[in-house]
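Narrative of activities, Objective 1.

The group set out to show that a structural description can be obtained from nothing but a protein's sequence at a throughput compatible with the screening campaign. Below is one input-output pair from the validation batch, recorded exactly as produced.
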Amino acid sequence: MKADSLMKVASWYTISRILVLTLSFISIPIFTHLLSPNEFGEFAIYTMWIAMLTPFVGLGLHMSIGRAKVEFKERYKQYVSSIVFLLLILLIIALVTLSTFESFFVGVINYPSHWLYLIIVQTFMSLFINTVFCMFQFNGMYKQLAIVTFLQMLVSLLLSIYFVNFFFEENKAEGRIFGVFFIDLILGCALCIYAFVYGRCYVNMKFWAFGIKYSTPFILGSLSYIINGQFDRLLINEYLGAAEAGIYSFSYSIGMLLLTLAIAVKQALNPWVYEQLDNGQKTPVKVVYKHYIIVFSLLAVIMLHATPELITLLSKESYWDGLSILPWIVLAAYIQVLILNESETQMFLKKTLVNSSVVVVGAILNIVLNYMFIPKYGSMGAVVTTVVTYAFMLVLLLLININVLHFKLVSNRVYLMSLIYILASTTIFFLVKDSLVMRFVLIIFNLSLLFLYYMKKKKTSQKALC
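Output recorded for this entry:
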């Protein structure tokens, strides 16, 4: 991929993600005013079950789409079509299993039976969507991906508001659920048909064998990632109730916007990164990853100092207890931004089992610490546990990539300097958090650094082109 093509892809991804993030920002105050903390918590737990089931019921097959572009090249579209068909078979199996053991699952999850069917169907619709979106990404169909992603978010938001206000006034959490469900159902079916028409390949044992072999190690790892991000909400709901889980989920949704933006940038870069690494060109990737870390370090600090205003502006007073935990969530999100680099390295090297093992160890640590601290310290125990778990995983990934795989794309100096800056900024935040003036000055300072860094790199790029 040429430099100008990379810039076009990155620009479209950036614009689309900014629009999606804008809608996410808009949706937060809307639903914190429409829903009580208890209803917000019920919806959060519903989405948690979808997230936890996604890697398991779909065998992690959507994770193979990027690597398949390198493996199969000319037969890539046939591969995608075949994988979507396999996911369709798994959907039928899941529905038959649920129907057969419905009373058992209702007893375990303690949800109405129709919610369980919604969870299963929406989980597979998300898998169809993610699989085809990944194909768009690696085929350079960035315009189509940007437009469809934005429309999905916009229509889902509008439909949820409509359902909550006019159809589910007695059960607003269910209105929120159906607003998201119907859009995913329509889009998932449409993209499923698109994949079949585009690839015209259904049963292909070679494709299925590759997908399962490549993706199976990710199942436990992906599930463990979900546990790291979602298990605390389940325990908070169990020990403290849905209202506390709602407040925690609200704060989490704000803090993790940083990670959402980082994932969008990585999705824009990944096709180019895979192409460069496949051709043995590590130096350009190292340069881009360095810029990525510096920019997100500054963005994290800016967000950190804005957390009190974000809480009060985006919610009503019943949610303001989340202010104490939001800075920790931003710190956890930043560590995950760094983890993305190291995990991507292992995915390119096809060391999926290694990557999954690290995540599994992190999940075990997360579960143990959450069981120890949530009953005693509540949400604060959960969020500190999250930071400790992700920090442990980052160190472990770095040690493996440097000492075992001998494949390093980010220098130790860049990591060290960025972490020192983040930790120093976090300490300063806790010292000045009650001073709006001081936090405002620090926000302006970091915005200035971000602008100066951008101008410096822009000037360097222009010189290189001359």
